[in-house]
Amino acid sequence: MRSAPRLAALLLPLALLALALPALAEPVVPVFTDETATAGLSTVFEGEWEYMVGGGVATFDCSGDGFPEILLSGGAAPSALYLNRSARGGPLVFEKTGAITLDAVLGAYPLDIDSDGLMDLVVLRQGPNRLLRGLGDCRFEDATEVWGFDGGTAWSTAFAAIWERGQDWPTLAIGNYVDRLAEDFPWGSCTDNWLHRPDGRRFAAPIPLTPSFCALSMLFTDWNRSGQWALRVSNDREYYKGGQEQMWHLEPGQPPRLYSEEEGWKRLRIWGMGIAAADVNMDGYQDYFLTSMADNKLQFLKDPATGQPDYADLAFKSGVTAHRPYTGGDLRPSTAWHPQFADVNNDGRLDLFVAKGNVARMPDFAERDPNNLLLGTAEGPFVEAGDRAGVASMGIARGAQVVDLNLDGKLDIVVVNRWTKAEVWRQTGESGGNWVQVRLRQDGANRDAIGSVVEIRRGDKVERHEIVSGGGHVSGSVGWLHFGLGDAAEARLRVIWPDGSAGDWMVIPAGSFQILGRDRPAEAWAPG
Amino acid sequence: MQIDRRRFLALSGAFLATPALAADRADLCRRALHGWYRLVLELVRHTATYSPPVAARAFAYVGIIAHESHVGLVPGPLTLAGQVQGLAPLPAPAPGLDPAAVLDAALGRAMGDFFGNTGPSGQGAMQAMARKLAAEIDRDLTPEVAAASRAHGLAIAQHVWDWSLSDGGAVVENLGFPFDYTFGEDPKDWVPTSDIRIQQAPLLPNWGKNRTFALPAPDLCTLPSHPEFSTEPGSAFHAAAMEVYEVSKALTEEQKTIARFWTDDPMLSPTPPGHWVSIVLQIAERDRMPAERAAAALAVLGVAIADGFIGCWAEKYRWNLVRPVTYIKRYIDPNWETLLITPPFPEYPSGHSTQSGAAEVALTAFFGDNFAFEDATHADDGLAVRRFSSFREAAEEAAISRLYGGIHYRFGNEQGLVQGRCIGAFAAQLKTFA
Question: What highest taxon heads this organism's lineage (chain B) (predicted)?
Fold first, then answer.
């Protein structure tokens, strides 16, 4: 049960964070420049009813230069892979390729499935999903059949991956939406989500995650720091009957099993559209931001000592309800899609980006619905800065990525919009602080160390980052992990690797890129 | 015949999927009525504006449209013009019209009018329903009869739509939550009960000023004061709150089931008024009621529950009483949690109780006393069918469910039933058949 003292305890770290960090009375508002017109991204997420959700973007380096490429989903139109031709710190420049032109793509996630050091892609589609094997130099081949992956025929709208203990091949969770053949009466027609577990170095037949409730986001998370990752699923109440938000046990060799009310799981029914996880209050446990309509949730674990997955929603108290447009004059409730925590102003505090946009033209909801950029503050609650930062687009946004596209240490933003070109913003103002960026490397399976945890010291506290593949709204990234440092000249961090073994605490100089290999000293890297 | 929700929906779906029996125009009327109402229950659930008062209003108008579509075309139905407030005489049908085509056109138009703000799935479903029903219904009609019949149906719907625009409830902004609201400052006054930002003002504070249907005026069925607010242990008010608290601590599984069966949350169910509409549709299906009889029942029910919400809302904002969750956390147990989510508006009286009392009286007058039925409204959501020996028994269970759910005091439920029965008596007096 939630008690007032415990509630205060959940919020207190937000305030203490202010004391633990260099004094910055007000958050520095980052300055973004809209480079949509010049960056070379031309893909439009097209389509009608069967593309009302989806619209993802994947960022990853497939050229080997360290700069992230961009894969934009096109919905009913072809998707496209764009090579990153930007210079470090310079304007964003992308070159469209013909490497990936699949249609009916709702989103994609990069994942080195076969651990060969070449990024592969999981492509979610309206119809058969595809696994694309990276061949190097941003070339790909369809490995769906070779890897024994059943792509199904569903409307796939969510994804998460993890390497289960003892496996050298990932487990993939695919979330599916309504039965697309039930357009005349879609309510209650949610199709099964699937769990694809390994069978050697290929995938076994999928396991239905029944019941399924029209998932729009999935995320593996070690919510209780047990070392046993669970699968959170955010579901769209618009279409399910008897549904709710879900979390699955995923124990090695055991069938997936839902967390139950007896275990402390509380029924929550929202228009679940995206999940972002971060240790916002630095209590060592992941907090979860869930996007929805007219309201959004920020869940903090009430009491880890109980061992129960019982969360308090502190979105209101934390200033992140993001429930209506804050600029543009449209006062109707908002529709939120891709959420992502990141330190966009490098002040050492997590910020939150939320992509917004009407489902289509629903008159009960805002049609001019600007994206949110909510900045973490010294006082605790977040403050809205999307308009001041220059990212308050009125496009009908869906997926997004907050990522350093030109490797200058300042995060940039790419957003997929329904029916109009994807937008991209370069951060061009002065940085609000220092930063480091790291990549994790381990030999053998799971080279990018999905399922690791990076812990970074913030004063006398430790901020815990789970390294995952999944979440958001059909959008994901593998690449440099960015950490803002504020005035700190160095970062103190360590890696807890997927098998649970903790690396040593390291001191990383600010302003540097480092490759963190397992049982090896950090290896400095520089663009170009 | 026992019928559960799945069978009910399957039958409704089958109406649309199977070829029409050419000679059975009456059956086509039933298909049209059940097809559109099957959809309207989903549209209420999936259109964000449709909080319970707004839903009840729509059910009233759609019910009246369904009923008026039969007037002058089949023997028996009497117009409600002159019986409900402000409804002028409707267009009279020309000879030779087809009742099924009239009804289908009228209800199809009503869906677009009253649910025009639904999302893309609802829009698509409306279009699909219209296509399927029209193809089936018009197949054996001459183009002239089909066109004339549909024109009459559209005229009926237009007439009612025009009438509806002046009732005070036609425009709902911000999902019904005012942008500005002045809170009371007394400890007894309602305060927000959730951390949902949009719900920091109460739902539809002016709904009690809307034009009523059969109820001559909202203040005809007012209530006495609730027990005097007090924080003193032993006071009537404190005792009422303690009862909510104690009941919540010792809920039986049956009580939890009852609470969840009648919770009827907006956006997650057809809402409380939709629950009663669902009950009537299940009865109509079970008893294979002629469409004109079922439409009359739906019209009377719609009027009763719509008036119920108007009257109830007038009282809610007159008394502006604090919810149990607020009182109990302030004065009894700061850690207390309710089984159900407390709705975002004042407590006294209970809205579900009021509209259930109104439905009870209206439906008892229509179907008779001790009319037994089964209720599979929430079967698709995994809740078992419940059986009732009368509408009164169902209404009383709906009322007490709010105590089990921790969202109302007992007096709020009991007085809600009192008010609802008073309001429902006016709807029960409507003459729908000769």
Answer: Bacteria
